[in-house]
Backbone:
């Protein structure tokens, strides 16, 4: 349960530093273990999710980092991760991750609540270690077609239909698992000092490895341009 423990620690630190900037509902990471046999070898897997959708709520005012960009009101950030890891000999390697994030705004004057932005982050490779055709290894789709969050948000009476984006446009990104998502939220919502403390604590945590040495690692090894988006695509 090492991965779950690390995520619990990061989420606890996020909540502690968020207290003076926004409210966070009480959720906890959980892990479901399973086994699979690949090429005659048995592997242990752990799927990490949350006990509920993580919900970060903050008042939008002139004094907040986002105050100059949104009308006065309430901003809610909904985060729903689903991450699969292979656990072998004490190391945790990423197999597949899908994390959805929805930014929802309630206008203080009209009381209208609507989805401003939907983000669908993916990491998924095929058996040969390569991403699918046209799929960057790590990418985000900017969309209102949030597969795991649309029904949840609609059930809260939130207008998701008027968030018009390109649902199948994939933009290469860094690896955006739950800790990375929380870092981004902290950067937008925390004071500089609280953000600095939080990101330093995240950097001290051990990072899970890629599932297997694959073509992506071959392309970026020893390459000064390894983080160019071209390295994230199948060739």
Residues:
């Amino acid at each position: 349960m090492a991965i779950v423990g690390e995520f619990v620690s990061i989420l606890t630190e996020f909540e502690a530093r968020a207290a003076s900037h926004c409210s966070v509902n009480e959720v906890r990471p959980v892990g479901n273990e399973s086994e699979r046999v690949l090429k005659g070898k048995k592997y242990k897997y752990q799927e990490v999710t949350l006990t509920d959708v993580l919900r970060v709520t903050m008042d939008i005012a002139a004094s907040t980092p986002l105050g100059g960009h949104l009308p006065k009101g309430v901003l809610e950030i909904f985060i729903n991760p689903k991450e699969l890891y292979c656990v072998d000999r004490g190391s945790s390697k990423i197999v597949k991750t899908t994390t959805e994030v929805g930014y929802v705004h309630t206008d203080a004057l009209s009381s209208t609540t609507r989805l401003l932005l939907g983000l669908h982050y993916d990491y998924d490779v095929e058996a040969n270690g390569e991403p699918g055709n046209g799929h960057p290894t790590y990418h985000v789709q900017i969309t209102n077609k949030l597969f795991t969050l649309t029904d949840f948000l609609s059930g809260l009476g939130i207008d998701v239909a008027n968030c018009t984006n390109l649902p199948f446009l994939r933009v290469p990104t860094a690896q955006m698992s739950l800790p990375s998502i929380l870092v981004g939220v902290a950067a937008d919502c925390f004071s500089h000092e609280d953000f600095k403390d939080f990101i330093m604590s995240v950097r001290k945590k051990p990072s899970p490895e890629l599932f297997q040495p694959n073509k992506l690692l071959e392309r970026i090894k020893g390459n000064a341009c390894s983080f160019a988006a071209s390295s994230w695509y199948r060739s």
Remarks:
- The beta strands are 23-24, 29-38, 41-50, 54-60, 73-88, 91-107, 113-124, 138-142, 170-172, 209-210.
- The chain has a mean pLDDT of 79.
- Residues 17 and 193 are 10 Å apart (CA to CA).
